[in-house]
Here is the input.
Amino acid sequence: MTAAGFARVLRAEFTKFRTVRSWMIALCAAAVVLVFLSGLSAFESRALIGAVPADSDGEPVSDSYMFVHRPLAGDGTLTAMVASLSGAGQPGSRLHPGLAPWAKAGIILEPDTSQGTAYAAIMVTGSHGVRMQYNYTHDNPGLAGPAGPSSPRWLRLTRARDVVTGYDSADGIHWTQVGTARLAGLPRTVQIGLFVTSPVYFAAGAEAGTPSLATASFDHLSAEGDLPRRSWTPEAITAGPYPSLPSASTWRQSSAGAFTISGSGDIAPLVGDILSAQWAGASIVNGTIAGLLFVIVLATLLATAEYRRGLIRITFAASPRRGQVLAAKAVVAGALAFAAGAVATAIAEVITRHILAANGSYLFPQSELDLARVIVGTGLLLGLAAALGVALGMMLRRGAVTVAANIVLVVLPGILGSSSGNWLMRFTPTAAFAVQATLPRSSVVTSNYTPPNGYFPIGPWAGLGVLAAYTAAALGAAMWLIRRRDA
Here is the structure.
């Protein structure tokens, strides 16, 4: 393939495209539809009710739990045994009936009980063993296994100025340090006590989460340091899109050192398990799907129109190297779709975020790098889909059949993905939509994997790579086929 020869064919294919008015209109329509439906999706979304707490860095967090606390002046230590941790709720109720994997019960220290405050905690979890967590994103593992009558977990949290250290023990005698946290600027008097929380539970492939409740039994509570001997203060901390259930958050003190506490919510980064209205990308995904349908039809026409009219013989006679013709059609369709998609996505991002903000919805912070990736990535998604459509069109030759094949490959897997264990979202061209994902992730939060409102089960560029692989394979197959059969 000579450069001069290919440039001539490329120019010819571009001239064909721009001289067909209906094709140019369809290309513009793809961009307009992407912008319009993205904005419409944002306009129809439900606004978030309630404030979203943020940590000291301004990052959104979940901060809901049942807290039984006392003030600690200066240095000190609090020790407790977690005798059991169980789930609550009945089948058919609005509560998840079992114990959520990231249900938490333990000892927590924080400057005050305001939302998003710094903290350090040592805890037992539903299925992740003992953990020391602090400031929402830091997580250190301790003893494995659940807490129960036959395997109680002893926890200890010690403060030395602004350094907080967590320990665990299986017998209350032999202690192991789990981790330390330096809470800069910690005041002399802080709040320390017992807490229980249980996050929204997502079943495999579920589109929505179910609130959960956890109940912990504490015993052998002991303290060292300046802790007043007055009564403990119970407080149901609640905030955010999935707050705790205040009516279900209870506590009972059966003796001086024994408590039973129930709580719901979470203390963790805020990620994808919230209302779709809070993610501008969900609206962009919806608009992209509509724009993609226009691109599929347009690419199909570019490939099949000459077969339908019998003009492909003239094209191949003028350009005997059929591979150049295929490549030129793919480049023209892909480049134009990329340009239209990138420009439309940039406009849609501005419009959807403005609409969501006007509706009172919380918007996740989005870095300039993520924004650039969504804009360029969406353009590449549409460009690769257009090239794939050209390849299929040159192989199948029939417009209706080609359009149907494109939809089955690129669009349908996204519809079926939530009920397929998500393998369709990993191994089909639909995986390319992952390039639009900007929801934050966290290893200490369980969320849903149901696009567009939740995570994609594949990385952004890896997902785009899946579509690129399908496109390359289709172009290779089309090139082999058109060289071996009559026009």
User: Anything to note?
Assistant: Residues 14 and 332 are 6 Å apart (CA to CA).
